[in-house]
Design goal:
- By secondary structure, the protein is mainly alpha-helical.
- It has helices at residues 2-14, 21-34, 40-62, 87-97, 103-114, and strands at residues 65-68, 75-80, 83-85.
- The chain has one domain (2-114).
Length: 126
């Protein structure tokens, strides 16, 4: 799903972020600071943009791939047949419920919930 990767890259560039934990923490704060500043249509655009970025952070650091869930029709990051993460749903929930549905907690909990290990980059890749 190249369009999601492109959207994530746009968010990364526009907000000077990286695909890392600190950037997910920034996104959490960004949502909290701005969630009441937009109408429904603008909020949906932000949910799509930030959900793409969150999903790409997951893929870059924990693996998985973008895929449409055949059962729900939702776009997910799929690790295997039994393990899926829904970044758009989580971003939407934080917009609606605040920090009780934190994208940062969601992101940092992935290795525990899915028994995954953070991908290690080769030492020569910075």
């Amino acid at each position: 799903m190249k369009e999601l990767e492109n959207l994530a890259e746009l968010v990364k560039t526009e907000l000077s972020l990286k695909y890392d934990t600190d950037s997910v923490k920034f996104i959490e704060g960004f949502i909290e600071r701005n969630k009441n500043s937009f109408d429904k249509e603008q909020s949906q655009g932000l949910i799509n943009s930030l959900g793409s970025f969150l999903g790409q952070c997951i893929i870059e650091n924990y693996g998985g791939q973008w895929q449409t869930d055949n059962e729900t029709g939702w776009i997910a990051v799929v690790f295997d047949n039994n393990n899926k993460a829904y970044p758009f749903a989580k971003v939407s929930k934080q917009f609606d419920n605040g920090l009780e549905d934190s994208v940062y907690s969601f992101y940092t909990g992935i290795p525990t919930v899915f028994k995954l290990y953070k991908k290690k980059k080769a030492w020569w890749k910075f």
